[in-house]
Amino acid sequence: MKKMSSAEVRQMFLDFFKSKGHTVEPSVSLVPVNDPTLLWINSGVATLKKYFDGSVIPENPRITNAQKAIRTNDIENVGKTARHHTMFEMLGNFSIGDYFRDEAIEWGFELLTSPEWFDFPKDKLYMTYYPDDTDSYNRWIELGVDPSHLVPIEDNFWEIGAGPSGPDTEIFFDRGTKYDPENVGVKLLAEDIENDRYIEIWNIVLSQFNADPSIPRSEYKELPHKNIDTGMGLERMVSIVQETPTNFETDLFMPIIREVEALSGKEYDPYGDNMSFKVIADHIRSLAFAIGDGALPGNEGRGYVLRRLLRRAVMHGRKLGINDAFLYKLVPTVGRIMESYYPEVSEKKEFIEKIVKREEETFARTIDAGSSLLEDLLEKLKADGKDTLSGEDIFKLYDTYGFPVELTEELAEDQGFQIDHEGFKAAMKEQQERARASAVKGGSMGAQSEVLSSLTDTSVFNYNKSTLESEVIAIVRDDERVKSTNDYGQVIFAETPFYAEMGGQVADYGVIKDGEGQVVANVVDVQRAPNGQHLHTLELASELVEGQKYTLEIDTKRRNSVTKNHTATHILHAALHEVLGNHAVQAGSLNEVEFLRFDFTHFSAVTPEELERIETLVNKEIWNAIDVNTIETDVETAKGMGAMALFGEKYGKEVRVVTIGDFSVELCGGTHVGNTSEIGLFKIVKEEGIGSGTRRILAVTGQKAYETFKDQEKILNEISSQVKAPQLSVLVDKVTNLQSDLKQAQKENESLSAKLATSQSEEIFKNVKEANGVSYIAEQVSVKDAGALRNLADVWKQKDASQVLVLVAAIGDKVNLLVASKDKDIKAGDLVKALAPFIDGRGGGKPDMAMAGGTNAAGISELLEKVGQTIEQ
């Protein structure tokens, strides 16, 4: 077995499969694109689902990758076990309808055991397989594997809902009796007993059936195109190659752990209790990579996951004696470890450090606030004579306020309180079960469409024409290929001017005409078929026949509006970089007819001043009348030009580069104006947050932008008329003066109200009654608003007139009730709730003052009569 670094293990895996004709696909962002079933990219195959379900046909059916992934279902286990991680790398090789079982198993065995490659001892490998999958069993035997090393496991069948599924065969490495002191042996595998001896290093999934939950597995139909999906965990593989006790002693983690040793002054013992070191090393990797890919800490979704990881790591830092912000200092180390294959962490080091440090400092304040909440909680328990902090309260502090459990328990025990550990575990388990129930493991794939996948006829999209004549080369109706249709269907033409929805740009609409110029069909949607052709969805007025020629006409007014918005999106993206920073990258877009929508990563709301700068920058590029140039080239040349890839796009060998002067250079397959002046005008109409760390800008261009400005001008003119400003230029001064006058009038009004309250109080406070030894005043008063009631209460507080005050007033159609109390045994909030029903109202407040609103003025008299009786109760 060769001694290798983690980088060498990764590269050897990719090189092997490249030698077998596989295309090496780069690792994609941890933030999923166009896949609402996933919170994170959680496996190597997650990014390839479009190939497996047949919605897209890859250029090469043989693919290999090293994919970064995040799984957070069991965060609490990280650090406790040898192989639990939140972020990990999955190495995989995939076949989309090409090779199958024989090659996949043979190549897996060759890569692991050949002296040219990893050179593992064959007698150290064990394989599990699905009991009914005798083909896999026989293939392992053919390769010389001892039958005693083949273990049938009923769970070796991969399926997630409807769609591709099949048996899988797993490969384990035997680390020997050193990790199995009782020498239980292969029984550990056969009975699925948790152990450190047999380490799973590779899973080969044989995707050969279309799963259907409504029928027994034995009746699943074979897929039209069988697939191979494999996964090798890099961290486990490196641990075996480097012969370390756990994954954490490998070169993927130890440089981070050494940094933590230096920061804490504590020493890491590979065989001791090192949970805090492991948690920190694991979590900072996830944080660095996720933030580098555009996710930001927050209160929901991905942001909440990152916040939990960071806070957990910070608390483990405190356990090691590190009380200041320190995680951000580990980011450069993460970058150095991974930069041979993932340079992005080092490239975005400063930004990642900034976000991590800011979040650490915020959490320090959270700890202070949480301590205060806990103190209040413990004081209440003392007052109630209780001595146990409930598991529910511990969990609420942890889950709602982010207050660490360990800290809660420590502070509570210091004050002599018992801890309900079991109650907390139960609450935590409920939350985990809810999370697991809502999670979609891997995200199910759609069923393959054999008809669409088999359409390989060449079809060309013409960017430069809005009308052209073309032949029908395929018609699909109800998932069957037909020769003609007269009501609806999906159609592919040899050439088309219709843009298929892609890259955030909506599809073209238009009509199909026959040779006599009569409209045969309306085009209501255009999507890309699995092999890339533009698939037109038609509503037909008369028959359309395969092999015949028709005239295709797009709705040019619609296209022009969308095109202006799409080009404006490119300029907006560049403007965001200039104003907010390069971290503000696209996280989704929509270029519609009437507006454009652009989602981007940013850690706070964009200020009005920043929005104004962004809007001005975009308009300057429009007014400068810059030519928009598009060239077709290869990916490497495009990168050399500084081209920025748009979010969610898949690029082939040939790409289109769209340049707008030296302001914007992007890879894009959409349609664009010839010169920025064609956009006319750009106006931001809304900026908002749509999730943790993600902002959205809605904007309009051209005529819509002009109409937006005119609408705003109309509003300004109406305001100008209302405040009697002769010109818009003096409107601000006029409004400022009016606001000043209003504030002065309000002050005078408050002063008069206070004087009136004082005057009224002389008469009101004379009528003191008593109930159950409590003195009270209950009066109906004539006031203009609820504020005047509060003024009377303020006067009452300064006097020694009574212990309880009840005031009620009919103000217009409403009835307002105020209760104030100086008696600790009579809570104003309780009393107001008891009296409010008499006026068909409800309300509440604090023990010393409360208010209610109602609608039944006829009930005022009865309310006042019942005050004494209510106090006695």
TrEMBL record:
Q: What is the name of this protein? A: Alanine--tRNA ligase
Coiled coil where? Answer: 728-762
Which PROSITE patterns has this protein been placed in?
A: AA_TRNA_LIGASE_II_ALA
* One GO term (biological process): alanyl-tRNA aminoacylation
Look up the domain of life of the source.
Bacteria
Q: How is the cofactor bound?
A: Binds 1 zinc ion per subunit.
What does its UniProt record remark on the domains? Answer: Consists of three domains; the N-terminal catalytic domain, the editing domain and the C-terminal C-Ala domain. The editing domain removes incorrectly charged amino acids, while the C-Ala domain, along with tRNA(Ala), serves as a bridge to cooperatively bring together the editing and aminoacylation centers thus stimulating deacylation of misacylated tRNAs.
Q: Which UniProt keywords apply?
A: Aminoacyl-tRNA synthetase, ATP-binding, Coiled coil, Cytoplasm, Ligase, Metal-binding, Nucleotide-binding, Protein biosynthesis, RNA-binding, tRNA-binding, Zinc
Which organism's genome codes for this protein?
Floricoccus tropicus
What region holds the Alanyl-transfer RNA synthetases family profile domain? 4-711
Q: Say which family it is in.
A: Belongs to the class-II aminoacyl-tRNA synthetase family.
Any GO CC annotation of this UniProt entry: cytosol
HAMAP family according to UniProt: Ala_tRNA_synth_B
Upper taxonomic lineage: Bacteria, Bacillati, Bacillota, Bacilli, Lactobacillales
> Its principal location?
cytoplasm
The function of this protein is: Catalyzes the attachment of alanine to tRNA(Ala) in a two-step reaction: alanine is first activated by ATP to form Ala-AMP and then transferred to the acceptor end of tRNA(Ala). Also edits incorrectly charged Ser-tRNA(Ala) and Gly-tRNA(Ala) via its editing domain.
Q: What is its EC number?
A: 6.1.1.7
Q: Where does this protein hold Zn(2+)?
A: 566, 570, 668, 672
A Pfam family of this chain: tRNA_SAD
InterPro entries per UniProt:
aa-tRNA-synth_II/BPL/LPL, Ala-tRNA-lgiase_IIc, Ala-tRNA-ligase_IIc_anticod-bd, Ala-tRNA-synth_IIc_core, Ala-tRNA-synth_IIc_N, Ala-tRNA_ligase, Ala_tRNA_ligase_euk/bac, DHHA1_dom
Q: Where is this protein found?
A: Cytoplasm
> GO MF annotations for this entry?
alanine-tRNA ligase activity; aminoacyl-tRNA deacylase activity; ATP binding; catalytic activity, acting on a protein; transferase activity; tRNA binding; zinc ion binding
- Give cofactor(s), names only: Zn(2+)
Which gene is transcribed and translated to give this protein? Answer: alaS
Q: Spell out the reaction equation it catalyses.
A: tRNA(Ala) + L-alanine + ATP = L-alanyl-tRNA(Ala) + AMP + diphosphate
